[in-house]
Structures are given as C-alpha cells and as structure tokens.
Amino acid sequence: MSRNFSLLLIILFVFAIGTNFAQDTKDDVKLFQSFFYDSPITKTMYGQAGIHYASYDGFSSMNIGAQGGYGVNPNLEVGGALGFTKWSNKNGDGKSGLSDLFVAGRYLLPLNNLKASAGAYVTLPIGKEEVGGGKMNFGAFAALRHPLSNGMVITGNVGLNFVEVKSDYENSIRLAAGLIYPVNPQLNVVGEWSMETEINAMMLSGGADYELSPTSRIRGGLGLGLDDGSPDLLLMATYFMTF
Fold it and tell me: Cβ atoms within 10 A of the Cβ of 31, count?
C-alpha cells in the first residue's frame, strides 16, 4: 500500500510542476477504467454503449450497458451508467439482471496552474442482488490531467469510497494513473493502472480510441487483473457519440 501511495505522490508531483495548459489534454478521449473519475468537463452531451466481458477463476460475467454525461456549465458535469449483467459458472449455470444505477458529478477546480476536478458518486440500489446489485455505495474523488511536451497526456485520480458490505459500510481507497498516447489525429492509445483497497482489486489495461467522425468513436480495450478482487481478463468494446 505504501509503495502504491508513493507512486501516486510522484504522479501528482509531475502534474504540479506543469504550467503550460495551452497544450492539448485530449479531453475528447475518455478513460476506460476511470471513465467518470476524470478531470475534463465536456461541453456537450455524450453517450457510450458497449459490452464488457470479464473472466474470473471458475466463472465469467458479461455486462451490456450504457453510460454518458452532460456538461451543465463550463465547470460542472453530471453523468450516469446502467447495464444488464449476466454471471455464468463453469457448468453453464448463472444469474442475470439489472445493475445498480451509477450517478456521478464533478466540478472543475479554479486552479491557475493545474487542470483538476473534484467529484462524487452514488450507486442507487435498483439492481438485482444475485449479480452484485442492491447496494448504495458512495464516494468522492479528485482527478488530474497534464499534457507533456511530446503530445502525450498523463492522468491520475484518487478517491475514498464507502462500500456496503452486509448492511454495513467499509471505507476503500481508490488510486489510478494513466497515459494517453496520440498515434495520429484519429487514433489514441490509452494505458491505465488502478487499484482499490477494500475489494483487493488491481488492474492494468490498454485500449484504443479511434475517431470515426467529429461526433463518433469506436473504443476497445484489454485489462489484466493483478489482484484477487479483479477479473483475470477483461475485454471492453464500446461505441461513443457526442450530441
């Protein structure tokens, strides 16, 4: 834990020394693991629909869902996500049902030399308990993006979550860092690392974001679990649009 926290401090220091925000922070490129835990405030309404397939030791899950957001003003954005999840074990048996509704908001902080946002989220317990739903989790986070002189963008976020466990709440720290690499004007490669303490989750992922038109993109990614609380393998395929 201390090693991971030290890594985050190094990342935040890299952000803090930057002062040139005339460079592009690739705000149109969304993160995969930290889709809502991010700093940009979108000027238009956007939405994303797709499939996430996760493989664990002995079972697998598939989530078909949608997520999106709306920029209320230049400093405030709200968003949400909802999906249908199916769990299957090695014998082919399983459960399926609606997930909880995820609702989040973030505010762009008035910092002269740092592009940062602070936000909060809550899950509304409308989902099916058999697929992990029926829980009102909530938390708060802070996120940063910083452009490098070579065109790449560093991202990072830290959060404190309160996770419902058997009618009680456990606190959990979330840490994440990422790198956006622009291959060309249409294609960006996104690398991410994230961890969450209470559920023993840690994942390393890589994804591609390709712009089909000024209002649409296709996105795909692969994640590898590094701790027991994460899937061994995660596949992500989505279609993104702005309105």
Answer: 24
